[in-house]
Design a protein that fits this description.
Elements lengths: L1 E5 L3 H21 L4 E7 L2 E4 L6 H11 L13 H7 L4 E4 L11 H10 L3 E4 L2 H18 L3 E2 L2 H4 L4 H8 L5 E7 L2 H13 L3 H10 L8 H4 L2 H15 L8 E3 L7 H9 L2 E10 L2 E10 L10 E8 L4 E7 L3 H20 L2
Parallel strand pairs: 1-2, 1-4, 4-5, 5-6, 8-10
Antiparallel strand pairs: 2-3, 7-9, 7-11, 9-10, 11-12
Length: about 325
């Protein structure tokens, strides 16, 4: 299977590392030999129809920060590469933009128009234009998969739509952002204030230099929209979510909650058609009370009751666990395996 890789930041480089790590296992177990035939970032595109040397590419980009510095790379832009470099599938891992969805939205629509399957971790296009993307993939008869966009390594969409396919999912509730969970966990355990804890999270590399997307609740809201549409069959967008972040949580509020046997967590929830993200009181012994950067999601179903899954919602290698799972699902379908 030939792959166009668009985006070569943390997740894109993690994808390359994953293929290097798993190449022998993928061949022996599935007979699967993926070839990355193009890699595009903002600087340009590297193309090799026979398969790019991923180790050499990683070495160069880790040193220089740009694809254009790789031997044989050109100034070809991503959309031209998607249109012009023959491939079966595109992996789109550019940064999330919840204002316009770009450039990811155009990348995905262009790939679908070219008859290529799409696998992505990019939340923005899905939170803003899921209906359009779904229609485009169906029109062109290509697969569109995005497990990694909503739960990192946690297989939330596959769990709901495959393992629990005989159940009606009544509601979804969970902690979908590791940065905010780390901050609230530290505040709870150490009694620190928000600003001090945020600074520590930034120093540890857990929070971004600009953490607003996480602490405002926007990241959780984007993931909640994706889960709502993919699992509940809705056509929600980001604007349908009531969003409140964690910036106003005080040590006093956390202490008061602890006295009553509760912790405060940032919860994304869809129930009775309403989508919301807000700090909530969670009983200390509740399955949703997970610590640190862990994520957790719980499905309430009509037959199985409550089904809860805990895992890592971020990280380059962890996210690529879900990306690789999506690619293998497409490969097995195409190969009739």
């Amino acid at each position: 299977m030939r792959i166009n890789l668009v985006g070569f930041g943390v997740i894109g480089k993690g994808f390359a590392k994953t293929l290097i790590m798993k190449q022998d296992w993928l061949k022996s177990r599935y007979g699967f030999e993926p070839r990355v035939v193009s890699i595009s970032d903002l600087s340009g595109t590297l193309v090799n129809p026979g398969g790019i040397d991923l180790s050499a590419t990683l070495e160069t980009v880790n040193r220089t920060g740009r694809i254009i510095d790789c031997s044989g790379a050109s100034g070809m832009q991503s959309l031209d590469a998607i249109r012009g470099v023959e491939a079966d599938l595109m992996v789109e891992v550019t940064p999330t933009n919840v204002v316009t969805g770009e450039p990811g939205l155009s990348h995905m629509l262009t790939a679908m128009d070219a008859g290529k399957h799409v696998v992505t971790s990019n939340k923005g296009p899905l939170a803003l234009a899921y209906k359009k993307l779904k229609a485009a993939s169906e029109k062109k008869g290509v697969q569109f998969k995005f497990e990694s966009s909503a739960g990192g390594a946690m297989p939330l969409i596959n769990l709901a739509n495959e393992v629990l396919s005989g159940d009606e999912i009544i509601s979804i509730k969970g902690i979908l952002n590791g940065t905010t969970n780390f901050i609230l966990t530290k505040m709870t355990k150490e009694g620190t204030d928000f600003e001090t804890t945020l600074k520590e999270a930034q120093e540890l590399g857990i929070a971004e230099t600009d953490p607003s997307y996480d602490i405002s609740g926007s990241d959780t809201a984007s993931k909640l929209v994706i889960l709502t549409n993919a699992i509940l069959g809705r056509e929600a967008t980001y604007s349908d979510v009531s969003v409140q972040g964690i910036t106003k949580i005080t040590p006093e509020a956390i202490a008061l909650a602890k006295e009553e046997g509760f912790v405060i967590k940032l919860i994304g929830e869809v129930e009775d058609g309403r989508l919301s993200v807000a700090p909530q009181l969670v009983p200390e012994n509740h399955p949703l009370n997970v610590d640190g950067t862990l994520n957790v999601a719980s499905f309430t179903t009509d037959l199985a009751g409550d089904v809860t899954i805990v895992g890592r919602g971020a990280g380059a290698i962890e996210t690529n666990s879900a990306i690789l799972s999506d690619i293998l699902s497409i490969y097995r379908g195409v190969a009739g395996r």
